[in-house]
């Protein structure tokens, strides 16, 4: 039996009654790492430890954090650190937990990272619907400031930092980093064409690092353990632990922190308690709604949680760490349709292939999932999908759009084609609904 | 400048001062305006434009992008029911249908279908004025709404702030 490896979720489990308060957090070591980092005053060492740790972004793309940091030009000021807390990928609910139940860990991670990157102003772009998270985080920032862990001349180090929490207002696309920056500037949340990348010209056209909540919450622990020690956890280039949000048809849905490299089977059965009624897994979506799917086959269930392995072998991604499990009673067409409806609703409308294509995919999947499909529909979907993401079954996506939202709707199409074509063709034989 | 109350105007100026550029304050000011009036009126957007030094059209352009901004009067309670995939397979659509049936013509309660709320561990989930409620049923959801209406539960404001 595999168990959780609790690093970033240790405090919120150990001090379940007061982990989000300043007293509860400091009693379990919050801000000790910040204090020692500031005492030491070695910015390069913080960056080096993060590099050695192999930490990769926990928001979805899995880009190496230290590398992202290294793109900042050495001579352009000011620089901004922006925290992406706009968690909206369907079935992902880990950042909300980290914000509501351990906001001080995040604040400490922001402060250490901002110190290393020489940022004096950081923004947390928080999903608008997280009302409790907003209260807890703003309270945490006020309390940390009162204790001298934020503000000017922090702990006598000469380092100043203010953190502004900026609430979104209901738009999934704002989790895409350039759309997030536009939204933070008071604009509609539409992605920007890159280059320039945010590291060169981001918020207010200044050098900007955008990191996910879980990524920054991990930083204090990397400093404590040492980057090399942290890198011993995990597997290959997927180092450390990650939070996985397991939901759907499992007995114990929830957020679980596991060492990367355990298998989907261990995560779903050992940790999340298996499938209710001992039914079988029909399929599961391993990394949020944007990922292609996997099935309940032994091969797929035994695949390791290794970002590169699953991408290279099965064209899926661990993405945001959401694992949605569907048992044999579920119609894959219905799930594909509902996800397409999501992407059609959340398309910002900037790029034609996505604005039009997501709507068409949704319409075709609607009729297929509601008994009105036609034999040619799957191929029609493939054709529409090819206009948004040429090749359709590729991962990482090829795209005709500025951001990956459009291609994400194609993941469902590709998965239906790969795993359920025979089942769908049997439902809609030639002549059906013609 | 007549829209914001005196206390809220002080808050609004504080909000604008947080940002290097005033236009960034549009979203937080729109939340503040909704919390005051229960919706985001043209008069509110006009004043936000003045406070941030942009045109009213720019404020409307921005605000019309975001689903949390209610640019028409709505109920005092916004019940947001998730029907995205985890809730889809655990009963979300049935809850939505029931509440729409019960409150479809009720001016005090606005029922809306929403995308994933990040509460899938407790699916099916909904929010009432952005307060989370998990593992709900059609019956328990209706009971919740009634408790908020009767005052046995205190709802947050229309943008989710705690009523002090």
Overview of the structural elements:
The complex is a heterodimer of chains A (434) and B (164). Chain A folds into three domains: 10-231, Rossmann fold (3-Layer(aba) Sandwich), CATH 3.40.50.11540; 234-327, Roll (Ubiquitin-like (UB roll)), CATH 3.10.20.600; 332-427, de novo design (two linked rop proteins) (Up-down Bundle). In chain A, 44% of the residues lie in helices and 12% in strands. Chain A contains 19 helices and eleven strands. In chain A, α17 (377-388) packs antiparallel against α18. Chain A is globular and about 80 Å long. Chain A starts with 9 loop residues before the first helix and ends in a 7-residue tail after the last helix. The relative contact order of chain A is 0.12. By secondary structure, chain B is an alpha+beta fold. Chain B is 44% helix and 11% strand. Chain B has helices at residues 6-17, 26-37, 42-52, 56-63, 85-88, 92-103, 138-150, and strands at residues 77-82, 109-114, 126-128, 131-133. In chain B, α3 (42-52) packs across α4 (56-63). The longest helix of chain B is centred in the C-terminal third of the chain and has 13 residues, at 138-150. Chain B is elongated. Chains A and B meet through α8, β3, β7, β11 and α15 of A and α2, α4 and α5 of B.
Which structural class matches the secondary elements of chain A? alpha/beta
SSE order of chain A, as H and E?
HHHHHEHHEHEHEHHEEEEHEEHHEHHHHH
| Distance N to C terminus of chain B | 25 Å
Point out poorly predicted stretches of chain A: none
CATH fold-type name of the largest domain in chain A: Rossmann fold
Amount of helix of chain B: 40-55%
Structural class of chain B: alpha+beta
Biggest sheet statistics of chain A: 5 strands, mixed
Oligomer: heterodimer
Query: What would CATH call the homologous superfamily of the largest domain in chain B?
Result: Glutaredoxin
Biggest sheet architecture of chain B: 4 strands, mixed
What is the average per-residue confidence, as pLDDT of chain A, rounded to a whole number? 96
Strand percentage of chain A lies at 5-15%
CATH class of the largest domain in chain A, named Alpha Beta
